[in-house]
Amino acid sequence: MEERQYDLIFICRPDTPEEEINKLVATLEHAATERGGKVEKTEKWGTRKLAYRVSKHREGFYVYLVLRSTQGEMIKELERRLKVADPVIKYMTVRLDEEIKRQQKLVQKRERRAARRPRKPAGTGEQAAAAS
Amino acid sequence: MADEANPQAPPPAPETPAPEAAPAPQAVPATPHQGPPRRREGGPPGRRMGGPGGGGRREGGPGAGPRRGKRQFFRKKKVCKFCVERVDYIDYKKPEVLQTFVQDRGKILPRRITGTCARHQRWLGVALRRARNIALLPFATEL
Prior knowledge:
heterodimer; A: alpha+beta; about 45% helix
């Protein structure tokens, strides 16, 4: 299986101590690498206001991970862990590699077009100048 | 009135590769409420009120009505914000950006209001739904 890229975001209760979150992140990273995944990026966004109430909380501590893996099982395992983890109130995984591929294709297309012929100056400005 | 802005416009036009974008920002601040007259610079100013100004009207750009002499409303042509900025991917992790395409109560604004193109509206919808899922945006704002 080709390599896939995922975004993983989870929200912890705002009253969880920082060390506990660090510990949780560390175990998740460990679990990911154990199953042949790579952790590209780990970001802690800190406490943010939630747009709606999640298990009676109005604020939450966001943690954001970017993962790469050829094994879909890895995601399954991570989600299982997040589900049972006590401080986590919400999590979401998004598969992004297809969108990134699409994006690269668009960029390439644009570059190719730009290389083929430089943008010709459009008329409107010059016409206005000529009329006055 | 619009002619006052004109003398500023000609110099950059031949030099810059995209004069479409260049003169417009200069003209707009000078005459903030003179959007409609600006459109008519294609024809001589004397032909304002319809009549024989057929040639000028064609250059009047998009939004010009088919009927002659009865044009009182000028709708500003809406441009897709994402196309202007050449956005290839709409990030669901930026609620500040997405917020502008949502009603007060949290509904997604339709294309006819925001002027977003079909492709970007599709991507926007995906991004908004993702943002809602992770509590970055509300499904519905409670009052």
